[in-house]
Each structure stands twice: as structure tokens, then as C-alpha cells.
Amino acid sequence: MSSSSKPFIPLSIAVLTVSDTRTTETDTSGGWLVETLSAAGHHLAEKLILKDDKYKVRAAVANWIASDDVQVVLITGGTGFSARDVTPEAVSVLFDKSIEGFGEVFRSVSFDEIGSSTIQSRALAGMANGTVVFCLPGSTGACKTGWDLIKQQIDSTHKPCNFVAQLKSIGV
Predict the structure, then answer these.
(1) Backbone region of residue 121 per phi and psi (left: phi > 0; alpha: psi in -120 to 50; beta: other values)
(2) Using an 8 Å Cβ cutoff, are 147 and 13 in contact?
(3) Distance CA 144, CA 137 (A)
(4) Which residues form the MoaB/Mog domain (predicted)?
(5) 83, 92, 107, 129: which has the fewest C-beta neighbours closer than 10 Å?
(6) How far apart are CA 164 and CA 169, in angstroms?
(7) What is d(CA 164, CA 11) in angstroms, rounded to the nearest whole number?
(8) Could you tell me the domains of the chain?
(9) Which pLDDT tens digit goes with each residue over 115-165?
């Protein structure tokens, strides 16, 4: 790293799995996100599994947004079109600003992986109270696709820009 490079800043990240069927033992997507964020040098703030309930999901994410201890929220699940998929409705109302480019790029990259089925993805992201929130589909493959986009945007050393400067203070 050159002397003009910014140092890596580890962030505090909460992970939420939204599913009526996943348990701690079967939550491969949430487990993969926890392992991956830790391997990238970030800290796990909390991990939850909640059923597809708009108000419970909204309450959990609102608590993390209000917390001084969480800078990033990663949500897996609930972004499809079934009657129970409520993550976008639960979370988008909390955003101060939407990050339209995330969903657009996610679906573009995902098209190469799953073809036209990607149009059923309602992946989205936004900023709220200095917290960046990413909502991913529930499959582990989709989480891997999403992480490839997210990891650079939550890395303080990524150029030309990243979200770290926009996040609430982490005591660094």
C-alpha cells in the first residue's frame, strides 16, 4: 500500500436472514455472509433469522440503523415475488436515499448466471442514518454475486469511491 492510500477500516456488519424455513443449521446464505465478511476483515455485529414478517423485519433493521454500533446491514431472502416475500416493502421505507445502481448492476450480473429469471429479483440497497443496507435474494449463489459488488463498496481502500466515508462513525 502506498503512503497516499487510505487504510482499511473494518466495519461492523449485521446479517439478517429472512425466511419461513431456515434455521441456524440450514441458513447457508446467512452463514456464508458471516464467514465472508469476517474473512474480509469486518466484524459481525449481530446475526438474526426472522420469518417473512414485514413489521418484524422492519423493526430489526430500524434498530440496527438507529444503533451507533452498526454501519452495514446485509439481508438475504424475501426479495422474490411470492406472497410471503416482503423484504423490499419492509426495508425501503427506512431509506434516506436509495442506491438504484445496486439492484440494476446485481440483475445485470445475475443475468449471465441465471438468465431471464433475474427479472424476478427485487434486490435493492439504500442508505439510512449513516448505515448502508443491502437486500439480496436468499440463495447462497445470489449472496456470492451480491458480495462481489458489495465488498468493494464497503472497503475504505477501494477507488475511485466507496461508501465508507458516508457511514456513521466507527470510532476510528
Answers:
(1) beta
(2) no
(3) 10
(4) 14-157
(5) 83
(6) 10
(7) 8
(8) 12-166 (3.40.980.10)
(9) 898 898 999 999 999 999 999 999 999 999 999 999 999 999 999 999 999
